Amino acid sequence: MTVQIARRLFTTTEYHQMLEARILTEDDRVELIEGEVVSMSPIGSRHAACVKRLNQLLFKRLGQLALISVQDPIHLGEHSEPEPDLALLQPRADFYGQAHPEAEDVILIIEVAESSAEYDRQVKIPLYAQHGIAEVWLVDLAAAVIEIYRRPSAAGYEQLQRRKRGQSLTLQAFPQLEMTVNEILG
Fold it and tell me: Do 50 and 184 contact (CB within 8 A), yes or no?
């Protein structure tokens, strides 16, 4: 016989109250995913270098066309506030100082995975699709590939492309911006 345990899901408001009450601190590497407070994978040196490289590449190529958010929260409905490695956001004069960006503010999310690729594929990327994020890149450092997810639906992304070393990729929102996998992976 299987016993079902009732889970109590947290809202983003309750999650922020835990931070204000110091139950959680900004030093805790956690994020709210579908109502659960989830530990994030530690950031290794290859992962950190890739995030820095992407940040620099995107800034050089996009300039003022988008805001680059690095490991900051994205508010996705009542029960999720993931912290993707990078997000390209619609520019706003207040730099989202009044509230975290929401799905409609996001141009692109990039997750860099050294050891978390399967979790990202099974949990985070479907979450982004459910909330209508137009484009997600998964930089899989172990496999040395970049997966490009486009055309979100409630069932997931309808389009998946894989790029490996020697190939290039473009952003759906900025097709004139071309980068190579080699530039991203280093």
Answer: yes
